[in-house]
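Justification of resources, computational component.

The compute hours requested in this renewal are based largely on the per-chain cost of generating structure records like the one below. Each record pairs the submitted sequence with a full structure-token output. That output is archived, and it is also reused by downstream analysis tasks.
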Amino acid sequence: MTTLEDKVNKQHILDIVRMETVWPQEVGSDDQEIHYYHITDALNRKWQTIGYNVSDAIEVFENGKTNVWTRIIEPAPFNPKLTTNNLIQMFHISPEDEHIRNAMQIILNSVERRNEFVARSIYINEQDTFNLLCNMKGEYLRQHQLTDEEFMKLYAANPVEALSVYFLESVDIHLYWEWAGAGGTCEKAIQYKQEEPEMPLIQAIERVEDEVDRYVSGY
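The structure output for this chain reads:
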């Protein structure tokens, strides 16, 4: 028996409808007919899958069989009220998966990004969810970074929030103190990000420390 942990697609099913047969049935044949089934999931996406009956179709859907038979035929509509908490519930993110919860809150920091995440998701499971978050984070850091002016303005008002948005990481006051104490500045962050857009904050801190050490030692 397939458990929840074994399923490739853990999405809740809102509706399932039997459609036409996959192959024409020969007259007089005793073979059980295979039907197409249309499934609406909790993200309001419509899928097509196949099965001998409803239970079989659900199992095919949950096991993530080849996309020849199981595929999305209607994407989720744009939801202007979609929140991070909605995503956490829809994607079955448990309290133990704190790293995924934090990543969602930081990376998907606008309703447009949250809807994009839904649109780009296929199967709902922890590994696929985390992989997509990582991919989108890299894309945002490379292609949709704050402008220098936006970052400088935010840094002047709230450096902790500015670093979190700029690096797309969880930043608290202690990490900010470590950054500032090492010699990190708004200008340094901009310089490092221009050279290496995906540089994590801890690496930026190490680089500041190295530069200070070289300056002090005369190298």
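The chain has three domains: 4-74, 84-143, 148-217. The mean pLDDT is 90.
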